[in-house]
Amino acid sequence: MLWFWGQSPYGRYLHHGGLGSLNADSALCRAFAPGPFRELILPFMLSILGWAVMVVAMMVPNTIPLILVFRRVSEARRDGAFLLSVLLIGYLAAWVLFVLVVYLVDWLTFRQLLASDWIIRNGWLIAAASLLAAGLFQFSALKYRCLDKCRSPIAFVMQHWRGRAHAWYAFLLGVRHGAFCVGCCWALMLLMFTIGSGSLGWMLILGAFMAIEKNMPWGAKIGRPIGLALIAWSSAIVIANFTAPGT
User: Fold this and answer.
1) In sequence order, what are the residues at sequence separation of 6 or more whose Cβ sits closer than 8 angstroms to the Cβ of residue 88?
2) Phi then psi for 26, rounded to 5 degrees?
3) pLDDT of residue 19
4) Contacting residues for 97 by C-beta, under 8 A, at least 6 apart
5) Whole-angstrom Cα distance, residue 174 to residue 43?
6) How far is the C-alpha of 8 from the C-alpha of 33, rounded, in Å?
7) Average pLDDT in the 212-218 region?
8) Which residues contact 74 (CB under 8 A, 6 or more apart)?
9) Can you list the alpha helix ranges (DSSP code H) found in 14-138?
10) Labelling 21: which of 11, 176, 189, 210 has CA 20 to 30 A away?
């Protein structure tokens, strides 16, 4: 779905800075009268929808162990499939809320940065800072506390699943698990704001890292090497730009 979207006239909304006016010649643009909805709200909705699709593509595979555990717990119930759907909705709600908040902050910041000629000339600083922040977070205690929750789906379900108001508790279970996943993966996901959610290659790479980290027995050990690689990458960008001719 993301690949087809990226080939369409609306592929720009899958990339950083895409929140702006629609192409005046596009069919979608002609369907609405000029005004705030067409110029601001509609592009914003397209961008958020693109990020929601990206979250589904990258994060739902990471939560398969939780899904399997919850399905075993609820399989004797007639509404087991419904409860599993509610669990997934809660999980995705946590990620979509994260994307919504970060996208708004990112957009407001991006508009301010575009007003600075110095930032426009030195846009590489944004990429270097994003990589450095993501690399440093790989060494934080918060990451590994959240990662422990994501890596223990059986204990997580036993702790948070209750026998009453099943749909509500299934939703809360998904939200809580999603919140811990946000807590351990938010820094890597922020790199997609620099790269753009239309980059299927980076989606596969970062999605694979997060899936291995959460689901493989040795997965927790790759966090720090990834952090070192990201810090090295950030340093390489800085060095390359400071040593470039004419800098």
Assistant:
1) 60, 67, 174
2) -75, 150
3) 47
4) none
5) 29
6) 22
7) 87
8) 80, 83, 84, 166, 170
9) 27-30, 36, 42-59, 64-74, 80-114, 117-121, 124-137
10) 189
CA–CA gap between residue 132 and residue 236 (Å, rounded): 11
Q: Which 8-state DSSP code applies to residue 77?
A: S
Domain ranges of the chain: 51-242
Mean pLDDT for the stretch of residues 56-66: 84
Average pLDDT, whole number, for the chain?
80
Contact 40, 18 (CB under 8 A): no
**Which residue in 134, 235, 118, 140 sits closest to 189, CA to CA?**
134
| Distance from C-alpha of 182 to C-alpha of 203, rounded to nearest angstrom | 16
Eight-state DSSP code of residue 8: S
Q: Which residue in this structure is represented by tokens 């499939």?
A: 81
What is the dihedral angle through the alpha carbons of 54, 55, 59, 61, rounded to the nearest 10 degrees? -50
Residue given tokens 């980059």 in the structure block: 199
Nearest to 232 by CA among 162, 136, 168, 108: 136
Q: 87 burial class (0-12, 13-18, 19+ CB within 10 angstroms)?
A: buried
Which tokens in the block code for residue 97?
A: 């809320």
Residue 126 near residue 234, CB atoms below 8 Å: no
Token pair listed for 161: 């699943």
Q: Dump pLDDT digits (tens) for 166-185.
A: 888 899 999 999 999 999 98
How does pLDDT run across 79-122, given as a tens digit for each residue?
A: 888 999 999 999 989 988 888 888 777 777 776 666 677 766 77
How far does Cα 110 stand from its chain's mean position? 18
Chain-centroid distance of CA 1 in Å reads: 17
